[in-house]
Amino acid sequence: MNYRHHFHAGNFADVMKHVLLMQLLQQMNAKDKPYRYVDTHAGAGKYNLADAPAQKSGEYLSGIHRLMQLNSKARKEAPEIVQDYLKAVENLRETEGKGVYPGSPWFALDTMREQDVATVFELQSDVYAQLRHNLYDRRLQSHQRDAYEGLLAVIPPKEKRGVVMIDPPYEIERKDFPQLVELIQSAYKKWSTGVFAIWYPIKDRAMIERFEKKMQKTGIRRQLVCEICVWPDDTPVGLNGCGLLVINPPWQFDQHADDALQWLLPHLKMAEGAQAKVKWLVGE
Description:
Layout: H1 12-28, E1 36-39, E2 46-48, H2 52-57, H3 64-68, H4 72-76, H5 80-96, E3 100-102, H6 104-111, E4 117-121, H7 125-134, E5 140-143, H8 147-154, E6 162-166, H9 178-190, E7 195-202, H10 205-217, E8 223-229, E9 241-247, H11 253-268, E10 275-282
Parallel strand pairs: 1-4, 1-6, 4-5, 6-7
Antiparallel strand pairs: 2-3, 7-9, 8-9, 8-10
Helix pairs in contact: 1-5, 1-6, 1-11
Keywords: Methyltransferase, RNA-binding, rRNA processing, S-adenosyl-L-methionine, Transferase
Family: Belongs to the RlmJ family.
Pfam families: RsmJ (PF04378)
């Protein structure tokens, strides 16, 4: 498997994913009872944007780098969750260097409370070793395991509440993500009250439409689509945008997500015709 997130860390897709992940977990924090965070493809936990992979791709320059260049006035106009996200990155950089960018497990642990627990999977042995080195937390349970079978083994968790982040390497998927749809169906069948957040790339709009139709046919209710496309749909650049499909989102998450994405769009867009939207794929 060739995919390495080190090349893509801190790009616009990471910004979008991590802002919305923090929003989900902050809303989970509103209730006293503990919950579990599950990350199916955890990655290395932290990334140094000064290292060769990030420097080679330069993707972070049109992502987190742009936001870090904003003046204080622009930041104060941002939705609260975006301000929290930027502060979290700054806090990490104050202790570990200005080129560091955190991955999803780090953002989750930073947002979670003491009583909450995280279970994360990473299959690639070298990346898993980096994950173990980068993240030390008594709330964290890490597994070098294939998440396509590991996820089903750990849900439903004893806490009964929780969020599952699914962000697979899409080079193993094909067409309209059939393996992913099958995993979502199996996971939902085991834990119908869990919150599932599925990140996906937008390269071909027709493929995304087929994926959405497949998800509609699953019979799963309360499916929310959040998208940001920094290039127009027909731009042949490889990655025009990305989406986050959220099943069972907390109350009013849709509005918070839309506020965040509409603010992010003008700061992250690469061309006219870029757009962001939040829509219910399937309602109650």
